[in-house]
């Protein structure tokens, strides 16, 4: 099984790289044959990725979310899965190229970082912890898609306002769809982030009863939760425009990225697992 | 042995102006009359006329000899005396491979005024049907036109030659679809009765827009237009009442003043609650105040925007020509091979028959010296030998390279070497 896992670890980034190439081809040539091949390869890659995660879980005897390599791979899987569902719903494939660039980098980094023989602390194998980390991975994946659609929305919005009918105008689907799926991803991300925070609070009391309440990463999670909370409040209670919400979503993503950098590299936090 | 040649003599928008194109045009009756006259001549075996507003082309196949430009020109000029000697300087003549490629390009919309347009497919199809139903076409032109229609499908599915709006009216709809998703739950307002405005409304209707309001200065005209689009007529002074609920407004009046101004929209946008509004101004002078584009949720576009979209799409379509050209060259090669096969068939049959006769004659001499059991074996051995001997020359014959003339020369050479007479043909 180890050999198979090592093989798939190498194959997955290659498959995502091929998908970047195929989806880039689709931007310039919407040939039915390429569309069919791309859609099939995407499904096959997703199945392989799911299989890889399941095999990894069987091999390691726990859900693979405890090391950075595993987390990156799982994030890629959830983003791919969410996008796969959106692609089938929207029937627009030209934005896939952007998603696959992100997926390639996540899986490529994961392939470098993943260590099949690394021992894992027992506390990190508890079901509550696994649930806590899985939910945060799905939450951040959904927020990533929310941000990506928000960025495309803003670019298309300004293109349309200034009558510039270039690349994004050609490949993108409508502003209405972009905003709709951006909200949807934002809501999914917000709900799962809420679940993450709640499970984190409950599990922390059991596993680390002596630790301080204000762990930097927890504080940052509250901040992100607040930003997306404002996002949802602004949409449904204040009727903010899609443009304003998109800026808020992009700002939220900026906070996530900077928090990850600050928390993981500059501050001491108990959120350094393994 | 009959040599087949396919010719096209024609004139199109590429070289000629509207005046010449209209003088060279064929009426539906003439499209039946002219081929009939041509087919009465012994050298012409098949004929078809493709006559559209952008091209007039005569397709003929000859049997047994070649035709010159002068001969074809004379036929056309005799039929249509309105065409002068000077007019024919703008005509083109394509033969065989070039003629086949030309028809494929024409049908794929690569020779059209609007690159990649699809109207030409219907025009070529109906021209071919007309000629075929009058029995003006035979095995060659039937296969040529049927192949052209298949090639057109292949080009359109394998390239983006027909992607993107190439008319201003359709560009307006394409633009709207970049802002709103589903048309069925959306409403549009057409102000005025300009031709392009009506076309936009028609395209919106075809895309399944939920509801269309039509506002016009004269109530009767508004009602007529509303009926045409299964919409609702509206007096011009009432447009402010529907502005909060519509998603798209098209301005196509001849009014010297703005129909919709900034202050009017300020109130409307408050009621709309951030819902985007697409405003397409195709009127000259403008119907909508250009300052409206400053509103966050108003997407105001005029003729220059739409023309820009059309030009971009045309350029992108032209960029697909290289890819389409590869398909067309490949299909032209296949068609030529089919022609070659058809022309070779009698020669191959004659050659086989001749060899079979020799084999039969030779083994018959030994018939009485071989018993029945061995005779079957002799038959098998000699037939196998013959097949092996003929395999290489026949394969080479089928895959012969070179132009039509060269192929005919080689076929004649084979017939001469093996003394295959014309009456041996099947």
From TrEMBL, chain B:
Substrate binds at residues 52-55, 112, 117-119, 123. Its EC number is 1.2.1.70. Residues 9-159 form the Glutamyl-tRNA reductase N-terminal domain. Transmembrane segments: none annotated. Residues 323-420 form the Tetrapyrrole biosynthesis glutamyl-tRNA reductase dimerisation domain. The keyword Endoplasmic reticulum does not apply. Residues 174-309 form the Quinate/shikimate 5-dehydrogenase/glutamyl-tRNA reductase domain. The active site is at residue 53. The keyword Oxidoreductase applies. Pathway: Porphyrin-containing compound metabolism; protoporphyrin-IX biosynthesis; 5-aminolevulinate from L-glutamyl-tRNA(Glu): step 1/2. GO terms for molecular function: glutamyl-tRNA reductase activity; NADP binding. It catalyses: (S)-4-amino-5-oxopentanoate + tRNA(Glu) + NADP(+) = L-glutamyl-tRNA(Glu) + NADPH + H(+). NADP(+) binds at residues 192-197. Keywords: NADP, Oxidoreductase, Porphyrin biosynthesis. Pfam families: GlutR_dimer, GlutR_N, Shikimate_DH. CDD domains: NAD_bind_Glutamyl_tRNA_reduct (cd05213). The record marks 102 as: Important for activity. During catalysis, the active site Cys acts as a nucleophile attacking the alpha-carbonyl group of tRNA-bound glutamate with the formation of a thioester intermediate between enzyme and glutamate, and the concomitant release of tRNA(Glu). The thioester intermediate is finally reduced by direct hydride transfer from NADPH, to form the product GSA. Belongs to the glutamyl-tRNA reductase family. NCBIfam families: hemA (TIGR01035). Catalyzes the NADPH-dependent reduction of glutamyl-tRNA(Glu) to glutamate 1-semialdehyde (GSA). Possesses an unusual extended V-shaped dimeric structure with each monomer consisting of three distinct domains arranged along a curved 'spinal' alpha-helix. The N-terminal catalytic domain specifically recognizes the glutamate moiety of the substrate. The second domain is the NADPH-binding domain, and the third C-terminal domain is responsible for dimerization. Homodimer. This is Glutamyl-tRNA reductase. It comes from Caldithrix abyssi. The lineage of its organism: Bacteria, Pseudomonadati, Calditrichota, Calditrichia, Calditrichales.
